[in-house]
Design brief:
heterodimer; A: about 200 residues; mainly alpha; two-stranded antiparallel ribbon; 7 helices; 2 strands; about 65% helix; about 5% strand; B: about 525 residues; alpha+beta; 16 helices; 15 strands; globular
Chain lengths: ~200, ~525
């Protein structure tokens, strides 16, 4: 039992900026999609497309950080002990059992978590980004000879958005499953995981 | 240092002298502003220094100097009132089409020819090779005094004349000499003499052309703004050899060319927006992404009939024929003083600030012509149809005025009919209000059979909206179209963000999100219930 410094300052900054950007893009994105009215289409579109560039900028830094620090290894998937994790969330958590996984500086994420983040990173994010850039540069694509139906691009983008929304709901909820409901959130702000 | 000072003083002196000279030049020019506009003062021409009894006399005088002008005019649609559409093969033009306003000029030439740029077009035997019957003044009058009253086959009236004969109404004669001596370039008002009054009155026909454009403000038309850009019609309809570009029979629906520039051989229609603004006129890149599918007019003309003049939106001839207590045709006006019912015409619906309809349009217009089969069960019959669709690569989304009508047709021969409306004879509907007689006369005039039976059929005509361009601040905002139920709600074959996406994806997406949310809430609730402390 004790305090472990898990999330470095850059990681925390990256996480929270990204959180704001993703929530902002979901809110404005679904408005552009026509799901509700909040800012108005024009404003939503402006915020959405500006946020994209902030996001891309952030990711340039994040990728550089992951590659130079070797932190990308955190996301290497493993099935080892995954059954224990699943069992904990399905059963153990209701009985007050301790979490079977103890985060360390070397392995910050439990196997289920790491797989989810990997999935978001290599499946959902590219899905959204590629379709989103195709959406943004639709006319340029067409001019360059890549004629893709805008409706198809938009549908792919929407599927990606729903996957991201699903992730977000689960992610926020699982954030409350620390030893206290706010423990994980605190760790994400301070960097320190004081599991006990 | 001292030397530099001297030089500066000398320079300043020269500059001041220079500006004094140029001010003097301007003063000399301002004393005769006309000098800057024309090399000819028509009042100094001997040929025009005499009284004129008729229009053709004036034309003959014009032609002594402008020797080829009449032959140029002879080539134009303004003169021929006939246009053979090379795409559809249909013979169109005023002399051939049937519309759902006054239906046809045939048999009504005496009245309708007041908008012909000629003199004496009173029936189909008019000599279209006549030079002296070209009307120069109707377009080149600079005084605003030239008039071609209805009923005179396009002739001006030079002596006070009682018209209709015996009516006691006097048509005042005009002084053609004074008008001829002041001719000039066309103005909004000269074109507007006819084009603002199409359909029988101010603002009636087009919706985007009415006399409010004589002196429009910026809000009404950003280009014609009398206090600003002050375009005339010809600024865009850049005319060469009297051939006025731009056509409603064969409009340019899509212009993929760049802006016209001097020194470049531009053969495309100079009256399009793109002919000046090019393909990427917006500073915001995403707006330029619209120019491949959306006509400029769609966003930049948010509504037509914006000049405080209502345009006719529908005309029901079938209710014509009512008389008032004195036996005169009944006339009903609305609160604004506009006629909404006239016994000789039927019911009208008038509207201002009208939101256009929107549709794909590739520039091809198909007309229902005399002789085409009319199947009443398929009403409304299209007077004309804008062709095009999302996938032909030639169509843009255009704003359109839909003009609905209910007009007489022959239920036996199943054709639209020419109605003889205007005239002093016994058969004219506006005189006797007898459909059978009026149609018999109208059909006889075009040599077509008439069964003697009259029925009414609903019709609809399309008019492209392209004038009354609003300032950019008044252009449509994104959400006018990027919304469910927005302006382009009925335009098919194109994905419009915000108008509605893939239903299946949306349904599954929201269901899945709701299920996950419900799942975690239940999970959390169980945790809460089972909590140890």
């Amino acid at each position: 039992m004790g305090r472990v410094y898990i999330f470095t300052r850059f990681e925390r900054l990256w996480h929270w900026i990204q959180a704001v950007l993703i929530i902002g893009m979901l809110l404005t994105g679904f408005e552009i999609h026509g799901s509700y009215h909040l800012l108005g289409f024009e404003q939503a579109h402006r915020v959405h497309t500006m946020t994209v560039w902030a996001f891309i900028g952030l990711w340039v830094f994040a990728m550089f950080w992951h590659l130079t620090t070797g932190e990308w290894r955190q996301y290497i998937p493993t099935m080892k002990n995954i059954d224990k994790i699943v069992r904990f969330y399905a059963v153990g958590i209701f009985k007050g059992e301790p979490h079977p996984f103890r985060p360390t500086r070397e392995r910050k994420h439990n196997p289920m978590q790491a797989q989810t983040y990997l999935g978001v990173t290599v499946v959902v994010t590219p899905l959204i980004w590629l379709s989103g850039l195709a959406y943004l540069f639709y006319n340029e694509l067409g001019a360059a000879g890549f004629r893709v139906d805008l409706g198809t691009i938009a549908t792919v983008h929407t599927v990606g958005a729903f996957l991201m929304l699903a992730f977000l709901i689960g992610h926020i909820y699982l954030g409350t499953t620390g030893h206290t409901p706010l423990a994980h959130f605190r760790a994400m702000f301070t960097g320190w995981d004081d599991d006990h | 240092m001292q030397a530099l000072k001297h030089i500066l003083v000398a320079l300043a002196t020269v500059a001041m002298m220079g500006s004094a000279f140029s001010a003097a030049d301007q003063k000399a020019g301002a004393s005769d502003a006309a000098l800057l506009r024309s090399t000819a003062d028509h009042s100094k021409f001997k040929e025009l220094q005499r009284p004129f009894q008729s229009g053709p006399e004036v034309t003959k005088a014009c032609l002594t100097c402008h020797t080829e002008a009449a032959r140029q005019i002879h080539q134009t649609q303004h003169w021929k009132w006939e246009y053979v559409n090379p795409g559809t093969g249909q013979t169109l033009g005023k002399r051939h089409v049937i519309n759902n306003f006054c239906t046809s000029v045939s048999s009504n030439y005496k009245a309708c020819a007041s908008c012909h740029i000629g003199y004496g077009l009173d029936d189909k035997n008019f000599d279209f090779a006549s030079q002296e019957n070209v009307d120069c003044l109707v377009c080149h009058d600079a005084t605003g005094k030239y008039k071609k009253p209805s009923g005179f086959s396009g002739h001006p009236v030079t002596k006070d004349t009682e018209f209709p004969p015996g009516s006691g109404k006097i048509v005042r004669g005009i002084d053609l000499q004074a008008i001829a001596q002041k001719v000039g370039k066309t103005r909004r008002e000269t074109c507007g003499t006819c084009h603002f009054y199409g359909g029988g009155g101010d603002a009636v026909k087009h919706g985007d052309l009415d006399s409010s454009l004589d002196r429009p403000d910026k809000a009404l038309d950003v280009h014609m703004d009398a206090e600003g850009n002050n375009f005339t019609c010809a600024t865009c309809h850049k005319t060469e050899g009297h051939q006025v570009p731009g056509s409603r029979y064969a409009p340019t629906a899509m212009d993929k060319g760049g802006a016209h520039i001097r020194g470049k051989a531009d053969s495309t229609n100079p009256a399009t927006c793109q002919a000046c603004h090019g393909q990427a006129p917006h500073s915001m890149a995403k707006l330029n992404d619209h120019t491949d599918k959306v006509a400029c007019q769609t966003c930049h003309i948010p509504a037509f009939a914006r000049g405080d003049m209502p345009t006719k939106m529908s005309w029901d001839w079938s209710t014509a024929g009512k008389r008032d207590a004195k036996g005169k045709p009944l006339v009903v006006t609305n609160d604004d003083g506009h006629v909404t019912y006239n016994g000789i015409k039927g019911d009208f619906v008038l509207e201002e600030n009208v939101r256009p309809e929107y549709m794909w349009f590739n520039g091809s217009v198909k007309y229902t012509l005399m002789g085409d089969d009319i199947d009443k069960s398929r009403q409304p019959i299209a007077i004309n149809t804008f062709e095009g669709g999302p996938d032909d690569g030639k169509s843009m989304i255009w704003p359109v005025k839909l003009f609905r009508g209910k007009q007489p047709f022959d239920p036996v021969h199943r054709t639209l009919v020419v109605t003889h409306l205007a005239g002093e004879d016994d058969t004219a509907y506006w005189k006797n209000m007898d459909w059978e007689k009026a149609i018999a006369a109208g059909m006889a005039a075009v040599g077509k059979p008439f069964s003697g039976k009259v029925d009414f059929v609903e019709t609809v005509a399309m008019w492209p909206i392209t004038h009354m361009v609003a300032p950019k601040e008044k252009a449509l905002a994104c959400n006018e179209c990027h919304a469910r139920g927005g302006r382009l709600d009925k335009v098919e074959g194109i994905y419009i963000p915000g108008r509605g996406g893939n239903r299946l994806v949306d349904t599954l997406g929201w269901l899945a999100s709701a299920a996950i949310l419900a799942g975690v809430l239940v999970h959390g609730l169980i945790r809460f219930v089972n909590r140890k402390h």
